[in-house]
């Protein structure tokens, strides 16, 4: 038998044995590309940095892109796959997920320094971390070694990404379905303190809810008509709020500057569904 064939069969045997032991859950590692792509991190970061310099909102968009990828069959890059039946066209993503061009730019930059090595799923994970850090949020080590999906599931994207209409119980259960606790859910919901939202996403909140700062509701109503299309106007939240949240306990934020003049207090920073539950006091 030819020796390269027997090496392959040995490798396969080893894989079968390892799968038997670990249930085939390959371990992710921060060192995954340390030999095969030593310049990966600075390469990704500089492209993310340019994108955010060009448009500050892009940091929040890249973070959301990662979240929406991960919630559907894991962080496997499936959201990046084109095709009308793909996840890009699922209800929670169509006309709202942004940043695909930036991911393409990062992928090209990474291919230039180490062709054919780094998965797109890992690039999305690193870009989300870099975005948060560049915008003034916390930093963390990203474990790597994800494999890219070859198929996407629009049905799963429609059903598993928690919609803005979810109540607390539904939110807890969506996060639990992907192995995240209610504490994780509260922490991850902090991502909503940056970026922009479409009028359609907060119209009911600013017109129909009573547990909202009335002056904030009024300001937002000015840019979001009570009825009429999805609106192109936005609810902008600033980076300075993210900074404060990363260093302060949310319930202690009494006011923060948003843009130039809007004052925000703890009933309006963060997600009211969560704030009212007392979970944020943890
Ligand atoms: C996902 O939701 C969109 C919008 O509601 C719908 O048009 C589409 O058919 C759904 N896709 C699947 C596979 O259920
Ligand atoms: C506000 O509530 C009323 C009564 O339930 C409903 O008809 C209306 O569509 C709601 N408005 C928004 C913007 O959700
Ligand atoms: C925060 O907003 C709520 C709701 O509008 C209001 O009742 C409360 O007095 C405000 N607190 C501060 C510190 O401004
Ligand atoms: C958060 O702030 C509140 C109000 O000042 C305080 O009661 C609570 O103990 C703080 N929690 C933590 C974890 O620091």
UniProtKB/TrEMBL annotation:
Residues 257-269 have a biased composition (Polar residues). It is an enzyme of class 1 (oxidoreductase). Residues 27-282 form the Plant heme peroxidase family profile domain. InterPro entries: Haem_peroxidase, Haem_peroxidase_sf, Peroxidase_pln, Peroxidases_AS, Peroxidases_heam-ligand_BS, Secretory_peroxidase. Its main location: secreted. Residues 1-26 form the signal peptide. The keyword Metal-binding applies. Its cofactor is heme b; Ca(2+). Keywords: Calcium, Disulfide bond, Heme, Hydrogen peroxide, Iron, Metal-binding, Oxidoreductase, Peroxidase, Secreted, Signal. This is Peroxidase.
């Amino acid at each position: 038998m030819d020796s390269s064939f027997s090496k392959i069969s040995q490798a396969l045997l080893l894989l079968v044995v390892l799968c038997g032991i670990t249930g085939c859950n390959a371990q992710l590692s921060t060192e995954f590309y340390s030999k095969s792509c030593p310049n990966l991190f600075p390469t990704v970061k500089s492209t993310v940095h340019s994108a955010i310099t060009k448009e500050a909102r892009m940091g929040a968009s890249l973070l959301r892109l990662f979240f929406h990828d991960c919630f559907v069959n894991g962080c496997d890059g499936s959201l990046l796959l084109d095709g009308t039946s793909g996840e890009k066209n699922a209800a929670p993503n169509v006309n709202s997920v942004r940043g695909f061009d930036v991911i393409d730019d990062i992928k090209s930059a990474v291919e230039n320094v180490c062709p054919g090595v780094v998965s797109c799923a890992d690039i999305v994970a690193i870009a989300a971390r870099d975005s948060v850090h560049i915008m003034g949020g916390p930093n963390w080590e990203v474990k790597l070694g994800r494999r890219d999906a070859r198929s996407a599931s629009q049905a799963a994207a429609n059903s598993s990404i928690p919609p803005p209409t979810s109540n607390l119980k539904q939110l807890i259960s969506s996060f639990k379905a992907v192995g995240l606790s209610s504490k994780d859910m509260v922490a991850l919901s902090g991502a909503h303190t940056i970026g922009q939202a479409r009028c359609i996403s907060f119209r009911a909140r600013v017109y129909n809810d009573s547990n909202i700062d009335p002056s904030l509701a009024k300001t937002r109503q000015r840019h979001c008509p009570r009825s009429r299309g999805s609106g192109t106007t936005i609810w902008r939240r600033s980076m300075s709020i993210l900074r404060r949240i990363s260093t302060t306990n949310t319930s202690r934020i009494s006011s923060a500057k948003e843009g130039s003049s809007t004052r925000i207090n703890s009933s309006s920073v963060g997600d009211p569904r969560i704030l009212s539950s007392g979970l944020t006091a943890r």
